[in-house]
Amino acid sequence: xxxxxxxxxxxxxxxxxxxxxxxxxxxxxxxxxxxxxxxxxxxxxxxxxxxxxxxxxxxxxxxxxxxxxxxxxxxxxxxxxxxxxxxxxxxxxxxxxxxxxxxxxxxxxxxxxxxxxxxxxxxxxxxxxxxxxxxxxxxxxxxxxxxxxxxxxxxxxxxxxxxxxxxxxxxxxxxxxxxxxxxxxxxxxxxxxxxxxxxxxxxxxxxxxxxxxxxxxxxxxxxxxxxxxxxxxxxxxxxxxxxxxxxxxxxxxxxxxxxxxxxxxxxxxxxxxxxxxxxxxxxxxxxxxxxxxxxxxxxxxxxxxxxxxxxxxxxxxxxxxxxxxxxxxxxxxxxxxxxxxxxxxxxxxxxxxxxxxxxxxxxxxxxxxxxxxxxxxxxxxxxxxxxxxxxxxxxxxxxxxxxxxxxxxxxxxxxxxxxxxxxxxxxxxxxxxx
Length: 434
Prior knowledge:
This protein is an alpha/beta fold. It has two domains: about 15-305, no CATH class; about 310-430, no CATH class. Helix content is about 20%, strand content about 30%.
């Protein structure tokens, strides 16, 4: 007899499920949106908040970190709007078009939507959901599906507002768009925002997000981004807040062929901040840079997750076989990668490699860095692969798995002989910062 094992729900998970039931009738959207919300709520009911037994979340255990779910934020009052006037000042004197959301609600009187550039449309997500906007109906929840992510399912169920931005084919925006999200309520609350940005073929735009919050808030924000073929998009996200802020952000992006996409996440506050990124490449010749920086103090916890770089592409597995990374199975289909740690030098040189018999016997990254300072001059990329080697499939699609990654710039007065003696990566392998 097999008994079904179900995880006991926490008080926070129960409160969030009850919040959806209570808020459902007031959330914007037609019958199709309601169906989308209901399906997402069911997924959250099955998945719950992520915890340390979920590999991708083992360092950000939301079940433990969120003991109590805060009530859903209501519409901002005059005092809240007044407090939000200075939100987003962290970008300084950048001449950007401000689109302001206070406590998860669009505030037109604080926004700059006059004289939009040719080819640019901006509207609130709440309005688009209520009116059955065609772009939202076609794209929402479909850009980069993440069905196994409970926090994204929760965001989909409870999303109230956000930005819907469309940049037409070939258009160039001279001014950046600054999405200002300010959680300024007097009482701690939960805020759920969802934005959709579609940049058509050959267009160019910069989108800046700044997130500010007052004490005790819990923020779950998500952005779906479509970058068309030959388009160029720069995206910057800045997060700040007090030491008891919990902020979870999900970027889901689909990047077209021969496009350029630069993403930079800058964290300067908050108690728990997690920025997770899901990227799909829909064509060849794309250049994508996913970067970030954090200023930490005290017990702040910041996590950047699912950044698919640096990547070692090895379609023929020539290098990984040469270095003994694969188990010696007779059939190629069963050539499963051993746990391996590579050090790749500034000229694409494999400077050092360790192949471990098991996950528990891998070298510490601190030891790898210490060793590397004695070996090579310049920039080193150190990454560990838990299960598979990254490679470019025969279909031309990038295949990624989770990787533990660190990037370190090291200077060493000792010189080049060691580096020159190391084998070069063959031409069939491309080392990229995807």
